[in-house]
Amino acid sequence: MWGRIGFLASCSAMALVVTVSTSVAQGPAQGGCGETVNAQGETETSIQLCMGGLLDEQEIMIDALETMEVEMRAIHAQLVRGKLMIPGQLRLMRNDTEDIQMLRDQLDRGRQDNLAVEDADYDGAFEMADQKKGKDCKFSDRVFFESLEEGEFPPGLKPFSGNSFDMKFGDGKCNVFKARIDDPNGPDDNEMVRVNERTENMCERVCEDRMGNGSASGFAAPPRPRKEERKERAVFAMNDNIDAAVRANEQLKTGVARMSLVKRQLTRFASRKASGDEDSCEPFDAARILDELASVVGLAKNAVGIVTASLELVKESVRPATKQDAVGANASVAETGISVPVGISKLIEQAIGFDEQLLKVAALIAGRVQDVAQALCVQRVDTGVADLQVKAGETSAMLEALDTKVDNLSARLDEAILLLLTPHGQRPGFPNN
After folding, report:
1. Does residue 375 fall inside a structural domain?
2. What predicted TM-score, i.e. pTM, was given to this entire model?
3. Rounded to whole angstroms, how far apart are CA atoms 165 and 150?
4. 126 and 140 fall within a common domain
5. How many Cβ atoms from other residues are within 10 Å of residue 281's Cβ?
6. What CA–CA distance (Å, rounded) separates 25 from 310?
7. Cβ neighbours of residue 305 under 8 Å, at least 6 residues apart?
8. What DSSP designation does 166 have?
9. How many structural domains are present in the chain?
10. What's the CA gap between 349 and 347, in Å, rounded?
């Protein structure tokens, strides 16, 4: 079928497609996606959970596609049974269980990728994409300092005086601090040293957050970091895209229901034809029904196509944001979440589109078969009428001859009655008669 013949990679990319997302949905989903409560009891949005919501909708799409394929094969069988098509006329009609399973395998891969990309990765993409550059950036040891367990010192080192750290260690300035070597039984154990945080890879470049427009947050509201605004826009876009997927599934549901109805209509027609209960030349308009069904399936394909287009734009938009040097590995890995859902949506769209074309071809074939059958039926009726007319002419001549015979018999009967009523001596030709 693959001859016939989804979502957020990086949160930073979603903000780039918010204008696209709003075109495929009528506002955000009620309640929003991915809402969760953190350890501090605060409500926040999990990008990972939102992605999971999209994958759930794609699983529903795959289920509907599988049902659609089953109905297509059943419709084809009834077209053959009703002699509206001969076996092999739709050679591409086959069992597509392997293709459906491939889609399910890809969906499972998408779920695994989504679980591998943590919310911290997405948040890191937001942060790095919305930080200032140049003089607003500096080297800091805070990240390294805070990564140590409480009271822990860098490996191989210990406080230079009792349990006290040098105040310069962890002051955010990334400079030189005093410590002692921690090498029990070693010749240099407890030796005082000066440690340069930069040369020991205890520093990283930290930039200030870009600030957004405070007025956007409300009257006289203080400016907020752009990373927070970007995440809000991303979540809004995710809600829109999930809503679009929900509507696509409604269209698929309608298409499957219409297919089931057409299958029942064709089954009844085929049963009547098999029993010889089709004497009328009035055709069963299967061509029109199949063509209307193709239009319904086409609407479902277009609905999925909207989701595909939106996800494709997300995929294209994510690359500049996640490939910039400052972003690092976390933002780059955040891109992986989009790739599989985009592919799944494309394959579903193409599969539905192929079914649409099959229905259109079936409608053309059924229409031609109907035209031929109707013409033959009319010809048989005309021949029958002509035969009856000939037989009627022959019958009329026979009736005329019979009428003559009856008239003759009637005249002779009248003569016989008259003769019987005449006395013997008065009959003509007496005494010889």
Report:
1. no
2. 0.65
3. 12
4. no
5. 14
6. 11
7. 349
8. P
9. 3
10. 5
In contact, 128 and 331? CB cutoff 8 Å: yes
Residues 288, 246: one domain? yes
Question: What sign has the CA pseudo-torsion 340, 342, 343, 344?
Answer: positive
User: Do 252 and 314 lie in a common domain?
Assistant: yes
Question: What tokens were used for 298?
Answer: 């086409």
Residue 276: which residues within 8 A CB-CB, separation 6 or more? Answer: none
Whose CA is closest to 117, among 338, 328, 343? 338
Nearest residue to 244 (alpha-carbon basis) of 13, 23, 17: 23
Quick one: tokens of 28? 């955000």
Looking at the structure, do residues 327 and 403 belong to the same domain, yes or no?
no
| b/e code 377-398 from CB counts within 10 Å (16+ = b) | beeeeeeeeeeeeeeeeeeeee
Question: Same domain, yes or no, for 196 and 316?
Answer: no
Q: Which residue has the tokens 């995929």?
A: 315
Kindly state whether residue 383 falls inside one of the protein's structural domains.
Answer: no
Yes or no: say if 362 and 90 are a contact pair by the CB < 8 Å rule: yes
Q: Which residue has the tokens 């009834």?
A: 78
pLDDT computed for residue 252 by the predictor: 95
- Phi, psi for 147 (deg, rounded to 5): -80, -15
pLDDT at 263: 93
Question: Which residues in the chain come in under a pLDDT of 50?
Answer: 1-30, 320-321, 324-328, 385
Q: Check whether the bond before 87 is cis (ω within 30° of 0).
A: no
Q: Angle 133-135-137 (CA atoms, 0-180°, nearest 5)?
A: 55
Residue-wise pLDDT for 48-102, tens only, equals: 888 899 999 999 999 999 999 999 999 989 988 888 887 877 765 656 678 899 9
Task: For residue 118, give its domain range.
Answer: 11-130+227-338+352-360
Return the sign of the alpha-carbon dihedral for residues 53, 54, 60, 63. Answer: negative
For residue 218 the two structure tokens come to 């409300």
Residues 270 and 318 reside in one and the same domain: yes
Bridge partner residues of 211 (DSSP): 225
In angstroms, what CA-CA distances link 225 with 126, 129, 142, 211?
A: 10, 11, 20, 4
Is 40 domain-assigned?
yes
Q: Considering the domain boundaries, does residue 392 fall inside one?
A: yes
CA distance 21 to 70: 33
pLDDT at 383: 63
Q: Do 234 and 120 share a structural domain?
A: yes
Task: Count Cα atoms within 13 angstroms, Cβ side, for 300.
Answer: 29
pLDDT of res. 309: 86
Residues 241 and 356 in one domain: yes
User: Which tokens belong to 90?
Assistant: 């739709």
CA atoms of 312 and 426, how far apart (whole Å): 124
Terminal-residue alpha carbon distance, the chain: 105
